[in-house]
Amino acid sequence: MRALVLEKKGELSLREIALPQDVGPDDVRIAIHTVGVCGSDVHYYTHGAIGSYIVRQPMVLGHEASGTIVEVGANVTSLKVGDRVCMEPGVPNLSSRATKLGIYNVDPDVRFWATPPVHGVLAPYAVHPAAFTYKLPDNVSFAEGAMVEPFAIGMQAAARARIVPGDVAVVVGCGPIGIMIALAALAGGCSKVLISDFSAPKLEIAGQYPGIVPVNIGEQSLVDAVATATDNWGADIVFEASGSPKAFANLFDIVRPGGAVVLVGLPVETVELNVPAAISKEVRIETVFRYANIFDRALQLIASGKVDLKPLITGTYDFSESIKAFERAAQGRPQDVKLQILLTGEKG
To answer: Which residue ranges does the record assign to the Enoyl reductase (ER) domain (predicted)?
Structure first.
């Protein structure tokens, strides 16, 4: 099967590769329609590793996907051939202690698409457990279906924050995940969300949404902006979504006493954290790694119309141009938020 293969760090190819296609009794086979280019895909391409996950052999990229079911296993009753679907890319060991505790996202045995050594789905077909495959409502496009996965991270962050209606939040980092977090926080009850970055084009995109207040930290201090927005009290919740070590320096300057800091961005190196500042304010610290038991709720929120992710799609490529899409993503253009690849040649 022809697929986009990361041969090794910095080397991509579109070529034939053998991928598992046997449909088990609890599986479905999906004709892939749309795949989003994720920051983790790009990081594997440019660096060859994320932490302990190292690309040691050729690996198919892509894990933000939607498509159409073309075959179902003998035990599958919830889905049928022809259903338009999106897929939760991480499949845990259903017998593990983590799964039984409801935190299967941190199951050490989880198999997650495009995470070494597991292949991703930038290929015409994929086989996946029906239990982790979700039917798209008629009003949700394939493009939006492929955005459910990153939005689920935003939903997980909002859930971990324990938002109280009316809260004021800050998101540090206006990348795709940062904007997803801001939208999820608003949907979860925040009255407004300040989002900070150096990228004026990304901030302009985020600022299109009512309730999101962009802060260009190249022109204005985030500490001052938060003080002005909260009458010098501080934000109820601060989401760190940049992964930049420098961002950790003033996290506890912008959160209110008794507030929460939610760590979402994954630094590539060890960072310093001002523990005395956190303790003096009794700040609650939460961490986010992917998501658990939230994929279907993310899809429902998109279907409701309360969250519109379409403005975040800033580029679409045909499958034959997949390498160009990744080269563009690796450039980190300031006006880009989410690039997608179509395997059918048709939008929808």
So the answer is: 10-334
Looking at the structure, do residues 116 and 16 belong to the same domain, yes or no?
A: yes
> Using CA atoms, how far apart are residues 154 and 290, in angstroms rounded to an integer?
9
**For residue 6, is it within any domain?**
yes
74: domain CATH number is: 3.90.180.10
* Per-residue pLDDT tens digits for 169-187: 999 999 999 999 999 999 9
Does residue 103 fall inside a structural domain?
Answer: yes
Count other C-beta atoms under 10 Å from residue 300's C-beta: 14
Whole-angstrom distance, CA of residue 95 vs CA of residue 319: 37
| Residue span of the structural domain in which 314 resides | 2-147+309-342
Give the number of domains in the chain.
2
Query: What is the SS3 assignment for 139?
Result: coil
| Cα angle 185-186-188, degrees, rounded to a multiple of 5 | 65
Question: What 3-state DSSP class applies to 327?
Answer: helix
Distance CA 254, CA 305 (A): 32
| Cα gap 283→251, rounded to integer Å | 10
Query: Is the dihedral angle over the CA atoms 335, 340, 346, 348 positive or is it negative?
Result: negative
| CA angle at 267 for the pair 193 and 45, rounded to the nearest 5° | 110
Is 316 in the same domain as 254? Answer: no
The contacts of residue 304 (CB under 8 Å, 6+ apart) are none
Give domain status of residue 260, yes or no: yes
Token digits for 4?
Answer: 């986009």
304 in any annotated domain = no
What is the percent of the chain with per-residue pLDDT over 70, rounded to a whole number? 99
Cis peptide leading into residue 129 (ω within 30°): no
Cα separation, 213 vs 95, in Å, equals 44
pLDDT tens, residue by residue, 26-76: 999 999 999 999 999 999 999 999 888 999 999 999 999 999 999 999 999
